[in-house]
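Q: Protein A?
A:
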Amino acid sequence: MTGSEALAQAVRDLRGAGVDDPARDARRLLAMAMGIDPGRLTLHLHDALGPGEEARFREHIQARLTRQPVAQIVGYRDFYGRRFIVTPAVLDPRPDTEILIEAALAEPFDTVLDLGTGSGCILLTLLKEMPGAWGLGTDLSPKALEVAKQNRTALRLDGPAVLREGSWFDAVEGGPFDLIVSNPPYIAEGDMAGLAPEVRDWEPTMALTPGGDGLDAYRIISAGAQAHLVPGGRLMVEIGPDQGDAVAALFTAAGFENTRILPDLDGRDRVVVGNAP
């Protein structure tokens, strides 16, 4: 079987399973099975697949047919120009989170705290983009922290990046910080059933929803952040597109100043920022 023939069959199978953009996913998985860069796949589509390549591709497609995310199958996701290890223990880094990165980098900082660090993509990206800075990432999940540690080592940040296990501020040592960032669980409990299977069934529930109205993490973070920020220090969190006003109100009620809501590239509310007094 040639790569082209295998690809055509895989696209049909994925389309039949309801996978969005089956051609994109099949091409990425075929390139991995063949051990080539996805950008070079077209040059090799007429090559005959070896037995090992064909078996690997079938295995990858079977995993995708269960709606396992492509990032988990291939084991990584590119985020802000860098490669991050991804497993079912962590959220798949998403392009929307790069809005938070851009907002954080708009002003210099020497110290940063990342609450609920997961894969470490936010903390480690900020430290790579701000040489000389030091950061702490906390997470309640030991399995997530293992992934973050692997990413930390891969990016050569074992010195400036500290990772600690614990719930929100319970694991914080050191500070105060110039910047606190977080992409916390924010999906309302009633919205979980409507999520795509790739998210609902494969990503960690504790990183997706706090239950209830989805705002509990923001209540904890906004109430406790000032004790860990320098005067004028920034707090910024990623939010769901319908949560801007509610989270901004929590910031204001907690005493934060200059609270503002930043949109993503589609114009939807994506990040809330406030300054400590």
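Q: Protein B?
A:
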Amino acid sequence: MTTSTTARPELRPDVDIRTRSHRIGCIGAGAIMADQHLAAYQLAGFPVVAIASRTEANARAVAERYGIPTVHGTPSELIADPEVEIVDIAFPPDQQPALIREALAQPHVKAVLAQKPLALDLDEALALRDEAAAAGKILSVNQNMRYDQSIRVLKQLLDSGALGEPVFAQIDMHAVPHWQGFLEGYDRLTLANMSVHHLDALRYLFGDPSEITTVVREDPRTTFEHEDGIVVSTLRFPGDVLALSVEDVWGGPREEGYDDDFFIRWRVEGTAGVANGTIGWPTGEPSSIRYASRTHTDGEWVSPSWDTHWFPHAFIGVMEQVQHAVETGGAPELSVADNVKTMALIEAGYRSIAEKRPVQLSEFAL
């Protein structure tokens, strides 16, 4: 085998923290805020000055855990606090838009970080995008899988040309999410609340797709009514890249004495190489990647490693890009203008389910 003359790309699984000076007020005291957002902010040294939730006692308990100086009785009180520059929301998507609008109206609020999905449907997401632009405020959406270490390294490999032109990609999930109780009141489940991670990551890697075809069946474990349990989507991206996203939220029996094999794996094949990896969430281990390139590794498999995790370390990157956008006055990497394109992809998936056909993204006016 000939020796490659192309240097291996420098791989950076985690972000550099450029800015950490802008004061954060957190709305929500559930698991995602208490165990992920705030754990990440503590590791990064981001200043959290206030917290509020639907239940003040819960907010107070989380404040004591992280040394947050101010507990507000309601989210509205927190939004009105002039000490808060960035409002970080972890609330259900039917209630989130009203809080975003309150925050956009406050002169002291410079940015809002919202959860995904941004809203229950595309029309509401587009309205929020336009209202944020009219207010001259930063609105960012927490698509945190873009900051998973394996996905970041994969993006760097693609950008370096180590895999050549991408041909085929797949994200394959067989694991049971913790469905939050508020989801029982919606008619949309997996595509909007789990596939949104994977479809957004595919957009991050390959650009905006031209079409999506989505098929579903009910999940036998989920007892409340739902349209989309197990989900399989095929997508076509620029350069004729074909992609497959599988969200098997059944994953086999989950009961005492049954040894499951839950996982999330991904694979990308290109004209010059192949990369595959895992997302560490179901196992609690760091995500992983291995790749081989005929131009960068002489066809040998290389396995970079790191000690950080998707949860909570990816949330450092999410808030860091908001902090830096506030500092510089530029657009955040996870901008609402970009996120509405992921929302359109979700909407197209639901249209594909309903009409049993491939749906072109050009059918949606953005």
